[in-house]
Recover the amino acids of this structure.
């Protein structure tokens, strides 16, 4: 299979809640196969569950009216792909306008963020997403995961009072590296080298278990003094490490742009492509 034919086959993916030998789809999922991918009876499609497992299916039934419906029959056994990294990168993003957030979600999913945690900064711009906004973000994430051939989904966590400082999702993160574009008076190379040495040491002790790292992106107004204090004191209480602040470029970036660059900076520092 070459060229355009291979690209068409590689995009024949659909996220399924179950990967049984026979799967019946209705509504939006059937409409997607029928109208968006324009598949026909006898065509093959790859189902994936977002948890590392995938399976190839053949379409045996497909109808448009009165309601879209489709039946898939498995053509092979399920294939499980182990988690592909030594690190779980949890990108922590301040709330921003919905259209900017949608762009950030799509790009972070494509670039390999493992988790996305939203938080309320002191200098807030965006409101907490509504249920409809969350459903749309989930659709955008699913599409980005399908196109980028991800085996694992990127969960999105909303801000919560139950979460520790700055609303970060995981209290068991091994470290937080934070990016604050308002602070430019530091040596990023020193931070990168220290972070890389620490990560290499922790990986050697981790016994093949992925390490969870927070990639904390500052708001457009920068972190407040209270936020920086809470970040470091909570790290001490949970026995985790803090690196930063890191400034990505000299000019001021939008939050969504900074988030993508921060993720790539962290992956490069860890020696991941």
């Amino acid at each position: 299979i070459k060229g355009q034919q291979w690209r068409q086959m590689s995009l024949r993916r659909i996220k399924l809640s179950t990967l049984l030998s026979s799967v019946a789809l209705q509504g939006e999922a059937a409409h997607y196969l029928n109208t968006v991918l324009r598949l026909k009876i006898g065509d093959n499609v790859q189902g994936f569950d977002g948890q590392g497992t995938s399976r190839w299916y053949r379409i045996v039934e497909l109808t448009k009216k009165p309601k879209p419906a489709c039946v898939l029959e498995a053509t092979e056994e399920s294939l499980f792909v182990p988690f592909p990294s030594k690190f779980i990168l949890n990108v922590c993003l301040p709330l921003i306008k919905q259209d900017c957030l949608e762009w950030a979600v799509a790009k972070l999913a494509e670039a390999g963020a493992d988790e996305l945690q939203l938080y309320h900064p002191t200098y807030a711009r965006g409101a907490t997403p509504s249920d409809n906004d969350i459903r749309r973000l989930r659709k955008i994430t699913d599409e980005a995961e399908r196109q980028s051939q991800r085996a694992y989904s990127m969960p999105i966590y909303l801000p919560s009072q139950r979460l520790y400082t700055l609303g970060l999702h995981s209290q068991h993160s091994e470290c937080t590296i934070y990016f604050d574009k308002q602070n430019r008076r530091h040596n990023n190379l020193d931070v990168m080298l220290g972070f890389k040495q620490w990560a290499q040491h922790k990986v050697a002790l981790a016994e093949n278990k992925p390490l969870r790292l927070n990639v904390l992106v500052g708001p457009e107004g920068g972190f407040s003094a209270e936020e920086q204090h809470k970040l470091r004191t909570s790290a001490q209480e949970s026995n985790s490490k803090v690196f930063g602040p890191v400034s990505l470029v000299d000019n001021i970036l939008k939050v969504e742009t900074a988030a993508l660059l921060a993720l790539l900076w962290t992956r490069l520092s860890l020696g991941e492509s």
Remarks:
- The CA atoms of residues 161 and 167 lie 7 Å apart.
- Residues 188-205 form the longest helix (18 residues).
- The two ends are 27 Å apart (CA to CA).
- DSSP finds seven helices and twelve strands in the chain.
